[in-house]
Amino acid sequence: MSNTLNKRVAALGFFDGVHSGHAALMHKVLEISKNSNLTPSIVTFDTQPQNIVGLNFIALINSIEDRIGLVERSFGINDIICLPFDIIMATTAWSDFIDRLVIECDIRHFVVGRNFRFGKGATGNSKLLVEKCRDNALGCDVIEDVLYDGIACSSTYIRELLLAGNIELANAFLGHKHVLTDVVRSGQRIGRTIDAPTINMHFAKDVLVPSFGVYATKVYIDENIYNGVTNVGIRPTVDKSGLITAETFIFDFNETLYDCKVRLEFHSFLRPEIKFKNTDDLKEQIKMDCLNAKNYFCDV
Description:
Blueprint: E1 8-12, H1 20-36, E2 39-45, H2 49-53, H3 64-75, E3 79-83, H4 87-90, H5 94-105, E4 107-113, E5 117-118, E6 124-125, H6 126-135, E7 139-143, E8 147-148, E9 151-152, H7 155-163, H8 167-174, E10 178-183, H9 190-193, E11 199-201, E12 213-221, E13 224-233, E14 245-250, E15 261-272, H10 279-299
Parallel strand pairs: 1-2, 1-4, 2-3, 4-7
Antiparallel strand pairs: 5-6, 8-9, 10-15, 11-14, 12-13, 12-15, 13-14
């Protein structure tokens, strides 16, 4: 038998975006942990389940790295059980899945959202989980939807906002700033020729790309935070490859960051991506973008 501190209270879910609705589950886990001396934990999957069993591909708000990072930074929950979602998992009955978590992970209390579905054919739900937990002397809490401005916080709605370039409202539903973490890649170094050297980052293949355009961003490098301006898109003025990147000009920074891991926070959408006639026009617009981003950060 595990000792008391190894027994867990766990939130179950995919937690894409780690939005305000998910935060309600995390806070409940922390409350129960404090009152019951259980280890606060979450159980999630490495891959969006619907991308394995569904008909339509769902682009993720965040990579698994960013999901875990958001949970750790925002809630201090470091015990994260990330299970591989594969065909075996997809064909596991919901009740067997819960039994596995109880036996292998020593979970003694579950926290789920009202609409949580799981197990083979998504036949498991919060009502059935409550009944199973009651019959097996386990705890279970079901959290109601969290509303913002009368609308339920959901990953689906937040994806729509990001695709529309409405980053401010997306952030309001998330309860934090939208993030992208990646290693800095080598680029064409065109920015240096127009006095705007940038760092080049990519989106993982399964991660949603926000609306093409220019954003006011914060850049996290080790323990330091900088303001910057980021272009998300294909850089049509200077690049014909069609490769989607996030290129960031960091204010008051001139160090080389190739192969370093950097985290971007998207704060405000400044303008759509534009193809300019020449690099001189692009250079002038970058100056305006930087001014607008600096003004934004001065006002917030």
